[in-house]
Design brief:
With about 400 residues, the protein is an alpha/beta fold. It has two domains: about 100 residues; about 270 residues, Alpha/Beta hydrolase fold, catalytic domain (Rossmann fold), CATH 3.40.50.1820. It is about 40% helix and about 15% strand. It has ten helices and ten strands. The strands form two sheets. The chain has an eight-stranded mixed sheet, with helices on both faces. Strands 1-2 form a two-stranded antiparallel ribbon.
Length: about 400
């Protein structure tokens, strides 16, 4: 019920309705951000497996807080708390209870931030194990850089760079929008640029280009690379090996058209996130295999190396034979950099360990395995201390001398 307070001249004045007037005592506008951060912090520290009840809620809230603890503290705890005090919303037991939740949540955010900051040292140790302790001497010393603090702390979702141009929606196949790709290159368009191709995740049934690992693609393009982010056909209409065929078409397209954007595809890496990582690994392990190149068997689809991020390692749906990267490991496998979070709720970290162990036992090429402490799935969505450290490692890995790709088939 709206109350009217009588003024000195007898007239009625409409007062602002407060939560107390409505029978409540909780400042809802303050409660919502604090509750979201508190739940996200809990799920980041103790994620619920994706297939269990609350698994999806745990995944999405935990992922955001896990990668954005500083932004969460600043935008969703500190500022709302300051506003709540300034506007007099902390005047009841409910208001003080929310303040208490914010205070209790802050140490949890500090633990999450500490884990992310510590991943730089863990990633460099992984590079030492995979490339040998002298790897730094073989690369450009300028690769070691300061993380972009302003982006990480305040604008972690901002991926664009003014010196990078995106050429969108180029067709590489006949499947409509599912066969479109974007090219990222420096506006100065330097010649002889190495190439990075990235495939998005999404369980093979969702997702789109221009969504994941954008911080990586923009950084490499800023450094003079030509980068490609592509769509591919999705389930259920497409099945294995349709997705892999699409990636091989992308590689062939880059070898045919990359020079138009300054690329030199003699150095060509494939990368992917989740399902995209699974696809990138399969492409790297099946170079020039005509079974996966119908109608373009003569195209060179070999790659210089593979970047495997929060990937799936097992077989395709229905356990289709030959659809797992394990099925194609040979001594001639290209160099691999694999990164996986030890708290990934979708793909247990044990899968990544088994794959990299198998690859190391067989392959003659370097294998770098970076296990990210507290890392969730899809950690490459944002600018974070963890992913920025991994970007530096990826650039170092791709700059480290690797054997040249196999020349195109001539038979």
């Amino acid at each position: 019920m709206i109350r009217r307070r009588s003024t000195g001249d007898g007239s009625g004045r409409l007062n602002r309705v407060s939560a107390q007037d409505l029978g409540g005592s909780v400042p809802v506008g303050y409660l919502i951000p604090v509750a979201l951060v508190a739940l996200g912090t809990l799920f980041a520290l103790r994620p619920v497996p994706f297939e269990r009840p609350l698994g999806r809620v745990s995944y999405y809230l935990g992922l955001a807080i896990n990668e954005l603890p500083f932004a969460a503290f600043f935008w969703m705890l500190l500022i709302p708390t300051a506003l709540a005090f300034a506007e007099g919303d902390v005047h009841s037991a409910g208001g003080w209870a929310i303040v208490a939740v914010a205070v209790v949540t802050t140490p949890g955010l500090a633990v999450i931030a500490w884990r992310g900051l510590g991943d730089r040292a863990r990633i460099e140790d992984a590079m030492d194990r995979g490339l040998g302790p002298g790897w730094r001497d073989a690369i450009d010393a300028g690769l070691r850089r300061r993380p972009p603090l302003l982006r990480i702390l305040f604008l972690p979702i901002l991926k664009r760079r003014f010196d990078v141009r995106r050429v969108a929606d180029l067709s590489y196949g006949d499947a409509g929008r599912r066969n479109l790709l974007d090219v990222y290159h420096h506006r100065s368009r330097p010649g002889g640029a190495p190439v990075m191709i990235h495939l998005h995740g999404g369980h093979y049934d969702s997702g789109h280009k221009n969504s994941q690992s954008l911080a990586l693609l923009h950084h490499l393009a800023h450094r003079g690379w030509v980068c490609v982010s592509a769509n591919y056909r999705l389930r259920p209409k497409a099945q294995h090996p349709d997705h892999l065929i699409d990636l091989k078409k992308i590689i062939a397209w880059v070898r045919e058209h990359g020079h138009e954007y300054g690329a030199d595809p003699s150095t060509l890496f494939v990368a992917g996130s989740s399902a995209g990582g699974h696809m990138a690994a399969l492409a790297g392990l099946t170079p020039n295999d005509p079974a996966f190149q119908p109608g373009f068997a003569d195209a060179d689809t070999s790659v210089t190396g593979v970047i495997y991020l929060n990937g799936w390692y097992g077989p395709y749906f229905n356990d289709e034979p030959g659809s797992s990267p394990f099925d194609h490991i040979t001594p001639d496998a290209p160099p691999f950099l694999v990164a996986h979070g030890d708290l990934d709720p979708l793909v247990p970290v044990a899968h990544a360990r088994r794959f990299t162990d198998a690859l190391r036992r067989t392959s003659r090429a370097p294998v770098v395995y970076a296990e990210l402490r507290g890392g969730n799935h899809a950690f490459d969505l944002y600018h974070s201390f963890r992913f920025e450290a991994l970007i530096d490692a990826i650039e170092a890995f791709t700059t480290h001398p690797h054997p040249p790709t196999t020349p195109p088939n001539t038979t």
